[in-house]
Write a structure and sequence with these properties.
The chain is an alpha/beta fold. The protein has 18 helices and 27 strands. It is 37% helix and 21% strand. It is an enzyme of class 2 (transferase). This is Polyphosphate kinase.
Amino acid sequence: MTKGAPSAEELDLNEHQWYLNRELTWLEFNRRVLHEAEDERTPLLERLKFLAIVGANSDEFVMKRIGGLKQQIGAGLNELTLDGRSPRQQVTECYAEIKEIHLREREIFAKLRALLEPKGIVIESYPDLTPKEKKALRDYYYVNIFPLVTPQSIDPAHPFPFISNLSLNLLVSLRYPKAREVSLARVKVPVGLGTPRFLRVGKGDRFVPLEEVMMHNLDMLFPGMHIVTCEIFRVTRNANTEKDEEEADDLMAMIESELKERKFAPIVRLEVAAGMEYLHRGRLAAELELDNENDVFEVPGMLAMRDLFELARLDYPRLHEPPHHPIDHPELLTTRNIFHTIRDAGAILLQHPYVSFSTSVERFLREAATDPKVRAIKMTLYRTSSQSRIIESLILAAQNGKQVAVVVELKARFDEATNIRLAERMEEAGIHVTYGVVGLKTHCKVILVVRQDYRGIRRYVHIGTGNYHAETARIYSDVGILTSDETVGQDVTELFNYLTTGFMAKRKYQCLVTAPRFLKKALLEKIEREIALQQQGGGGVIRFKMNALEDGDIVKALYRASIAGVRVRLYVRDTCRLRPGIPKLSENISVVSVVGRFLEHARIYYFRNGGDEEYFISSADAMKRNLEARVEILCPVAAPELRAELAGIFEAHDADRRSAWDMLPDGSYRQRVPAEGESAEGTHQILIGQAEKRLKESLKQKKKVK
């Protein structure tokens, strides 16, 4: 904590007290997501969705972050973080936070169940069903699910079975009717691949969890046996299984090997339903090589809350947000060739999901695939959907004789298997597929189209902050730019030459700034320039919008800027190591986090620069891994009308009195509340309104011209 208000001269920016912990601040973000499930202003099924998101977030956090910390502990690493915590301390504190979040989750779920009942959506307990309903459900289970179930004995003759990651499992203790000896068996609940977690009762929207149906019909699996107990458990495995790709002969084979290893990766968490017998809990912990006191979570109520997505998708329009339909970008409201439109406009800014991904980015690629004047297409692919129109367009382009090159990031976590399949499919179609630079993830989002225009070859480029994924483009808030700027085109050509060869020497960029070599250095230099300009004449302003602020050097530089008097406004979705509002240190810094209908994902960097303002969009967050171990880009936005749109995004965050949270000096957050007479619209509703207004003004202008 702060030891009073230090003078600027007394400050030591290396002191642990000035920095927050990366993991704990992320868990604080998950609490803000959980608040959306609690907030009565959020429609009921949307609240259930947020509860599912919290569950999925928690699972991923344990797999990635706790898994990584446990690897550090296992390797004997005791290096302290910027905030002064050891790996073991972090695990202990994170577990305490996770347990609190679990408890609150269950309390909110109980409230939501009660609120959904009068609406006709009921989650029943199997014992409460009528005999007729039980029989119907038993018959359905016997025909449709029972063949998928495989019981496994746990005894000296049978080794402890493999427990798959995030699976629901029944631990059954049973005996022969006249015997005293009790045996154990494990039964996996076969959720997924078409088997729902919640089985419908009758014709309405009443549901019973699958595990309850199984628990009350164990006589099918164990005929003639006496069931002593049936208890539920679930495991979470470490997702960190990365190998050294520099020593791998075949990157594809290495990634496939990693996926197999992740399946069998060490277990980092065991969740058990409340009331499990202590002996059974201890037996599971021992078999799974876990600490019974610290690694076992006793969960009251339902496990695997992420499965609530099934119910959150029920078709009750009044229990959801009003449907949002992305508009077509005003510049693209024409059947005219998209390349002519981009050439005449110079540059077009895309704000997703307010502007349609289909009629902008997908159209850009679709027309490139069929335009006879297009010679080549190059793009990076970090995440996309398996049924992607993007892939279809690339394959069509190759079939039409165009040169197509795609840099696929095989190590995009949790999308590795999808990306391997897509890479193989593209290679079969004749597309030149490469996997980026050894030792670096390719995280930048770029498409380059080379076209024979009337004056010779011209390059058309898309640069974005989000993935080329049509589904997430409807729920992630991102920005992108379509441009035919020659300098940008030349730089992107250099970027692809680097990505496909790995050769870095003497590669110069005129306007783009790339990581890992230049981006971090450029941000630090621009912060120092803002400090110098502030000292010369005042008026220094920095605005950063990103998902996470974790890099210690960037945080220190922003502290120095604040000490110098530069006004720093940070819009950070989740992890933030910086502590705002500390006298003498960060009193000129504010941090706001927006959690609402869409997932904030755009990265925008702004420097006032003595009045000669600079705006950039980027694929990179201010995180050490992004700036030092990934291929990222920072792209300037020069056109005044596009800068005004980016400024509008900042203004929407500032005006938000619904979904914005202000960070306090201790790292906690306070949600904004509208004062009397103030708008209660959140950032996303404001941006929907801005997009619709731009469209109306454009249509009005076109009518005047006619």
